[in-house]
Every structure is written in C-alpha cells, then in structure tokens.
Design goal:
Chain lengths: 213, 242, 220
Amino acid sequence: MNSIEISVNSASCYKNNNIVFNNVNFKVKDYDVGLITGPNGCGKTTLIKALCGIQNLESGEILFNNVNIKDSKSIFFENLVYVGHKNSLNNDLTIIENLEYLSALDNSVHKTDNNVIEKAMNFFDIYKYRDYMVSDLSEGNKKKASLSRLLISQKKIWVLDEPLSNLDEGTIKNFINLILSHQKKGGITIASTHNDFSGNIKNIRHLKMVGNK
Amino acid sequence: MNISKIANLKFFYIKTQKISFFLSIFTLVLFIIGIYWGLYIAPEDYLQGNSYRIMYVHVPAAWLSLQTYIIMAVTGFIALVWKIKIMEITSIQCAPIGAFFTIIALVTGMIWGKPTWGTYWVWDARLTSELILLFLYVGIIVLYSAFNDKRQAVKITSLLAIVGLINIPIIHYSVEWWNTLHQGPTVTKFDKPSAHITMLLPLLYMFIVFNIYFLTVIIKRVRLGIYMREKNNKWMEEYLND
Amino acid sequence: MITTIVKKECSLYFRNLNNMFLPLIFFFLIISIFPLVLGPEKILFDKIIPGVIWITSILTTLLTSNNFFKDDYNNGIIETYMTSESSVELILFLKIILCWIFTCFPIVIFIPLVSLLFDIPFQISLVILLTLIIGTPVLISIGIFGSALTLGLAKNNTLLPVIILPFYIPVLIFSASAIEAVSVGLPYGMQIYILLAFLFLVLPIMPYLLKYTLGISINN
C-alpha cells in the first residue's frame, strides 16, 4: 500500500451563520491514530463529516496526499471507511444481510468472501445474532455490527464518529486492540470521542477542540 | 478568501444605502410619467377602446415575471458553482419579487379579460403558463421558508430554480399545445400588427421602468438579506451604531 | 455488487408488503370514490375516466415518493453511500427502477380490472396502459427528486406536492391527450413519442441530479 497523509489546513465551518469551528489544523499519516476530543457541541461530528467530504467547509481545505479531497474523491473513497454516529443499518434486514449489503458498497469490484464477514462478526461476538432483524437488537449490538464493517471492508483509513458509545467494557478493550493491530499494519484511524481511550496507543495525534462561547 | 467575501457583502451594503434611496424616488417619478403617458397621451385603440391600456402594466409585468425567474436561476447557478454569497442572497430574494410580478400579470390579465372575453378567467395558454409560473415561485418560497438552515435552503432552492428554468419552456410549449388542441385559434391577446407606434413606445418605456423598479427592489431586498445574515457580525454592529 | 444491492432492496420491499400494496389500495380507493361523488352515469365516465386514472396515479406517486429517502437518511445509509467507493449514481438508478417496479407496476397490472369496472373499450385501455408505463417512471423520478430536496427538513409531510406538481404538467398533458386522441379515433403516435422523449431525458439525468441534491441535503 502507498503511504497516505491527510491534512486539515485552517478549516472553519459555519452552520446557519453560527460558527461551528474555526481554524482547525490537523495532520495524520501512516501508523497514526488521530483522536478528536472535546465537549459536546464543539463540532467533532462536523469535522469528521468534513474529513469524509460530506460536509462543506467555509474556508480552509482537507488534503489527501496533498490533493484536495474534492478533486481526488474516487481514490480517497477507495481507501476510506466511515462509520458514523448513525449505524447505517437497515432495520428491516438481518445483521448478515446488512453486512453483505455494506460490503457490496465498500468493495464494488470483488465480492467479499463470506468468511470475512463471519470472522468480523465473531470478533465482535455478534455471530449468534446473525439472523436477527436489526430492529430487534440492542443499541450496543447495533454499534458492534456497524463497527464490524471496519474488518470487512479492509480499508486503510478508518474514520469513526463516537465509536465507543453504547459499548460495554470488554468490547471497548477488544476494539482498542483492533485499532492497535490496524495501526501495526500501517493503517490510519481517526476517531472522535468524548472519553479518551488513548491509554496504551502510540503515535497519537491529539486534536483538542474547544467549544465556542 | 473568507475576508474578501465578507468584505464584498459589507462593501455592497454600505455603498448601496444612498443609491437605494435615490433609486426609489427615481423609480416613482418614472412610473408616474409612464402611467400618465399610457393612460392619457397614448391613443385609444379602435377595437378594444380604452381597456387595452391595462397592457401597459400587464405586459411588462408578464415579461418581468419570466425575466426574474431567469435571473433567479442564473444567480442560483453562480451561487452553487462559485459559492459567491451575494449571489445566494440575490437568487432567493428574486423569488418574492417574481411572484409579485406574476400576480400583477395574472390580476391585470383577468381585469382585461372581463370586457374582452366576457369572463375573468379563460384557460388560455398564456394565462395558464403564468399561473404555473406562480406555482413554481410559490414552491420555491415555501421550500425556502421551511428550512431552519437558510444557507442550506438557498442551495436547495437554487437547484430547484435551475431545474425549473429547464422545465419552463417544456411546460410552456406543452400548455400551448394543449390549448390549441382544445380551443382552436381564439382571439390572441394583443394583436401585434394593429398596434401603432404611439402605443408601443409607452409600452417599451414601461418595460424599462419595470426593469428599474426590479433593480430598486432587488437592491433593497439584497440589503435586507445581507442584514439578516450578518446582523451578528461585528462590522454590521459598528456600521449601524455609526 | 449490483446483484447484492438489488437483492437487498427487493427483500426490503417484500418485508414491508405495506409499501408495495398501500399505493395499489390507495389507487383503488380514490378511483372508486369518483363514481360515488359524480354519480354513476356512463356517458360522463367515458369522458372523464382517463383523466381520473391519471390524477389518481399522480396522487399515488406523490404518496410513495414522499418519504423515499427518509429511512436511509435516518439510518445514515445515505452518508455511507456518499463515502463508499461504489457508484452512487448507479445505486440511485437501481433504487428508482425498483421503486417503480414495486409501487407503480402493480397499478399498471390492475388497469385491465379498472377498465372492466368502468367499461372502457379495449383500444382505449391499451393506450392508458401504454401512457402509464411510459409516464409513471418520469413521475416517480421527479417525485424522488422532490423527496431529496425536502430531506433536510425536520418536518416535510406536506411540502412535496406543492413543489413537485408543476413539474408533472407536461407528462400529464401528453398522456391525457394521447388517451383523448384514441377515444375520438385520431392518431396518438406523436404524444407517445414525446412521452418517450421525456422518459429518456429524465431517467439518465436523474441519478446525477439526485446525487448532487443528496450531497446538499446531508450537508448540515
């Protein structure tokens, strides 16, 4: 895999004429874990969305290998998996169907092996719920299902919005190990979080955001 | 980049304050002259008598209603592609003015219709197209007001306006086609060849006056739009306190 | 990828049979209200029934397209589409086609039954069928465009018809006139060709337009 660098240069963003964040600078490259922390309403989610190219900035730019992501969308999205605050799961499909659907979106060229999906579900301990409708699951299990997309899609850049919400302690530990092993392979993780889980992770790039007013 | 954009709005807001005032007076004077010209000086029509005189309001209003839609769509397009703030404001502020012109055109058309057709409303091609144009304007105004985030609203309404602009000729020709199918040739509204130059001159003049009126109102409305958008900003407070 | 997406979208329709049959039931309800209001004279119905069928189809497409993206938006699936490497345009195109198959096509199938109810001659009901097959995909696409426009609103229950109906007018005019032409024995080829032109104009453009609109709508 080629080396990757993502940088946010003096980004600012407005919503309905109110400033969300102003002059944010941030840079991550291979083997990095970027943590975006800050109080509620300081624009973490907005920044994460901007990093995925689905939120327009008022000024500033986001570069992917020194090219604005707006001009390199196809190559950028080939390397990116975004797990947002919403679970991106369809309530009327079973977990396994949802994951097949999402893996079809993430790997448009090759069909994902069913083994990979199974492994990912086993990792998050949701294999036993494979034929449950998503609407019948608890919030935590939904979150696990949406996070298992990280393992299925096998992308280099993980962009996560509040990945730890609704997870129990064991799963959090498990998940941090997952980030560590992703890091060892040279992957990049960018996550917004309000409880700092940086404990034993190296190469942390911290971005502390402060709310306005 | 950011600063130059805000400066642009600021520049416009401050510079147009006096211009807007004088334009209003200027428009009023021109309008009175035009009304006098149209209603007293222009000769009576040998077929329609005096009732034709309402065309000095009706025809320019109908033209302007279409022209305003085109301006709204074009400024909307510029706003979407180059993200120029003042164009965003101009685009959405065109909608109420255009709707106003459309209503004027419809009402005057109905008033003219009573002595000519014997009824206020006939489903004639032009009136029907004008009515649909009003629906398009209403759709845009309603959609804009439904959004909380007005900047997102402008983008959405600009898009709708552009799609609408592509659709207007299609709608117009299909309505015209529908009309010829159902009614056959009826009395065309204002017989072009019979109109004498002494009648056409005031019409042309009124068209120009309506354009100047549009300019006056759009400047006022854009200033209002800038105020609404920038009222929390420092420069606006400073300017208003001076 | 296409097969997986089509399979899942289909099973979504099959699991919510309401989504599939509600439009059809709605269609029949409205159709059967007309005789109750206007009286059962056959001469009247010969004249107005094509128009009635078309107006009812409009209402039905408005009903189905109103919340077309709402679920996907609330679940965050739209965001996933926009950040995935797959072609969003292709997915949207498939979704439009499937929406037509599952909500409008049942109506088309039941047109012969409607023809029986109102004793429409075979020749005319054939043309009604033809105009519906060509016209409803256009209406559905425009309706879906409207639902993408109103997606960013907190409450958008009644806005869609106001915005979208003017755009329906050309399709309506030409469909109605084709039916009228055949009922008085005139050729109706031109109207059908124009409807086809609308179809082949709208369908290819719509996915790109939808992607752009959704991009704006999730941007908040």
